Amino acid sequence: MSLLALIRVLRARAVIIFWAVLVACVAAWLVSRLVPQTYTSSATVQADSIQENLLTGMVEPRLRVSEFLGQQAAIISSRTVALQVIEVLEAENYVSRAQYEQDWRAATGGEIVPGSDARLWFADRLAKRLSVKANVDHSTLIISYTSENPSRASRYANAFADAYM
Predict the structure, then answer these.
(1) For residue 52, how many other CB atoms are within 10 A of its CB?
(2) Distance, CA of 47 to CA of 62 (rounded, Å)
């Protein structure tokens, strides 16, 4: 097929090509508007994988670094660390107690039951968006937080790293 024949075929199919491109662009635009945008921010923490031998008193590297990092990841994901994050963010006026209490009342009906209050609810909500991955090769923990707001994702990831430290 020569170049001239290709141009004739494209010209004959111009309407079909135009509509296909238009439909693809509209579909892509609709999908981008319907799917919520989420941002993930990460903080990397170097975990000390050195331990003291209780018999000899010497400092040695851990033999089971992956097990140790798994324990540390569980600590970062705990409610205790999330409560410390809330304290730090409240002290910096980054979050307001009135706002998350209002969200808690809307989500739970404001029913006060033992073991459930606004702070614990907010801590659990923070922990749900948190992801902690261990990198055994570098003895690091990667703390990631996902949010609809990029600055919030960054601040919360850093707050979890600081609270863990």
Answers:
(1) 10
(2) 11
